[in-house]
Hints:
Largest sheet: 4 strands, antiparallel
Strand order of the largest sheet: 1-5-6-7
Distance between the termini: 22 Å
Number of strands: 7
Strand content: 15-25%
Number of domains: 1
Helix content: 25-40%
Radius of gyration: 14 Å
Shape: globular
Structural class: alpha+beta
Amino acid sequence: MKVLVATARTQGVRVNDYNWCIEGELVRIGEVCARDRAEPDGGCGCGRGFGGLNSHRATTTAMVADTPLAREEYVEAIRSSLQQQGWDPCACCSADEADALAALVGDWPVGTVVERRRDELVVRDMPALE
C-alpha cells in the first residue's frame, strides 16, 4: 500500500522547513489552526506540516513509500495515533482518512517527495524514470 512517510529529503528548500519526525514513520495531514489558515507560512507551521503517527511530531516533507501494510493496519495506525494524542477517534473517521491519504498518493511514484501548503500537496522531488 502506498502511503506518506516522514523524510528529510529536500529539507532546507524553504527557509522555514522543519523535521522533528522519525525518518520513515507514517504521517498524516492534520488540522490547520486559525493562525495558519490564511497563510501556510504563518507562525505556527501546522499549515505546512505533516504529523508523525508514532512520534507525534511534525515535518514539512513527506515521501511516497510502498509498505506491506494492509488497509486495516493503516486505519488502526491512524486511529491509535489520534487516541494517543488525546483525540476521540472513531473507526469510520480513521478509515476515511486512511482511504483519502492513499488516494492522494496513489498515482505518484514511490520516492516522490511532497510538501504541504494547507490543503494542497505539492511535489518537491520526483524520482527519475529508469
